[in-house]
Amino acid sequence: MISFDRVSKFYGETHALSDVSVTIQDGEFVFLIGPSGAGKTTFLKLLTREALPTKGDIVLDDLKINTLSSSGIHLLRRRVGVVFQDFKLLTDRTVFENVALALEIIGKNDQEIAHDVDNVLELVGLEGKKKLFPQQLSAGELQRTSIARTIVGGPKVLLADEPTGNLDPETSWEILDILQEINTIGTTIIMATHNAGIVNDLKKRTITLEHGAVVSDEARGRYHIHKKARRMRKL
Amino acid sequence: MTLLTTAWNHMRRSPYQAMAAILTMFLTLLLAGLFFLASTASYFVLQYFEGKPQITVYFQDKTGQESIQRLENELTATGKTASIKYISKDDALTIYREQNKNDPLLLEMVTADILPASLEVSATAPNFLSDLEPVIKNADGVEEVVYQRDVVETLIAWTNAIRWVGGSLAGLLAVDSILIVMTIIGMKIAIKKQEVEILNLVGASPWYIRAPFLLEGGLYGLFGAGIAMIIIAGLTLWLYPFLLGFLGVIPVIGGVLGAPSSTAFLLSAFGFFGGLAMTGFLLGSVGSMVAVSRYLKF
Known about the structure:
The complex is a heterodimer of chains A (235) and B (298).
Chain A lengths: L1 E10 L2 E11 L4 E5 L6 H8 L7 E6 L2 E2 L8 H7 E5 L10 H10 L5 H14 L15 H13 L5 E5 L7 H16 L3 E5 L3 H7 L2 E6 L2 E6 L8 H8 L1
Parallel strand pairs in A: 3-8, 3-9, 6-7, 7-8
Antiparallel strand pairs in A: 1-2, 1-4, 4-5, 9-10
Helix pairs in contact in A: 3-4, 3-5, 4-5, 5-6
Chain B lengths: L2 H10 L2 H37 L3 E5 L5 H13 L3 E7 L1 H11 L4 H5 L9 E6 L5 H9 L4 E6 L1 H43 L1 H9 L4 H33 L1 H8 L3 H7 L5 H33 L3
Helix pairs in contact in B: 1-9, 2-7, 2-9, 2-12, 7-9, 7-12, 9-12
């Protein structure tokens, strides 16, 4: 279970998050929506300890993330995987090597790595592309590789920061299918997105942030298009 | 990938930087190694001369045994002598024959009568020599007094000079090597910023990220030491006859250099080369440690 208890994060005068209290149960699939600058990325960064809250407590199961010592951060990040919009893959390593990285760091042997990487590449549909380098892949394949690297170590929580931001609608749905499949095996997924179509079609729990505050938290949420954006669309 | 493979790949992928670091390490270790050997040799040479009698008193032919005995007693009475050895005319002839055994011409004309009897005196401390001097000067029947002090003082000056110059140069080069390795590893960290960021995000421990960079610095030192060892070994082989002829009379050096298959020689060689390799590894590791602590903060 993830719990944000009255969490605020200030960057100087800017209030990235203000008094946010949220609880996410194990195995949930949650969309985190809101306009740019609403605090979605800060929310995710606090969960991986890339940033520290100015006030409040963040807890993952029995682990208080905001008081975690720096020597324990890497252990947290093995439990909380992140998928990024820009993939963050190593360009001088193959698909297999990029995915294997997450297992090498925890000291698995070559045999275990080969077995686990093959399994996860099959799950994301990249079994035939493991020897290719990132330059040889499409955007969708790059994101699948990134997802494979994140889930191969078996994280409890998967955070996805705009994972479909660089993808066409069809590829975006393929990525969503993979994330849903990962969710069905028990991984909690928190996905920050601007993709209204996906949010509205999937009807999952949706937390809406605006100016750093939670403005709605619906069990089967919808993406409410901002009034200004609606006006732009009419024009 | 193992730690060593990762460090090796870092080196392989930027060969010019690796070469710069290795060459600097090589120069430092070559100089440090040569000065260490020179300093060690000068120490043994000095020890050899210090161990020899500090004053040799040669007596006139007419000087009787009583006068010699009296001087010996007076010197002993000062309490400042470590040893006094009487060399009779016959002993002097034996020594002369031993020293010139390969030159029969020099032996033919010499008898015990023409060689002087002498006393070889060692003081318990070099500064007592000045107290012994007046006792010897006032003694009867003394023909000549030879002091080792002048030789020893010159040797001490040379040994100190070697240590100072060598130590300072090696120290400066060591600092230079550390700075170069630090700069190169710092550049590598900057180049691999994205990789470090990704490793950090996927949960690599700080040690997992830092270790290849630390090892890379150590490897530069080891490779530099390897080249320095080859050069020093080559120089030693090339100069072997000269070194043996020049320094072979010093018992410690002659004992080691004169028997290349002896345990003493092998232990000295392994100790020296092992020390050189360890110094190289440590220097490189210190350089990379500074870079890692400066540029890889988590």
